[in-house]
Design a protein that fits this description.
Number of helices: 3
Oligomer: single chain
Radius of gyration: 13 Å
Mean pLDDT: 92
Low-confidence stretches: none
Strand content: under 5%
Largest sheet: none
Helix content: over 70%
Order of helices and strands: HHH
């Protein structure tokens, strides 16, 4: 879908969600930011962006205390 319509907010949201589930939180956040530039009030994207950010913070804290290893 994104190859045809790179500004499709729902497709961007799905991509960001998938990246977050793969623990690629930075990439997910960037995709959500791109989607929010197109539709800043999209509730689902706002919610998923918040979750990805929280997951990123949790991941970073885990790295600090040694729970997550690269």
């Amino acid at each position: 879908v994104l190859r045809i319509d790179s500004k499709n907010v729902m497709a961007l949201n799905s991509m960001g969600y998938a990246l977050d589930k793969l623990n690629r939180h930075n990439e997910a956040t960037a995709v959500f930011e791109e989607a929010l530039k197109i539709d800043p009030k999209n509730e689902l994207t706002l919610q998923n962006a918040e979750i990805a950010f929280i997951n990123f913070v949790k991941y970073c804290l885990g790295m600090i205390i040694g729970k997550n290893k690269k």
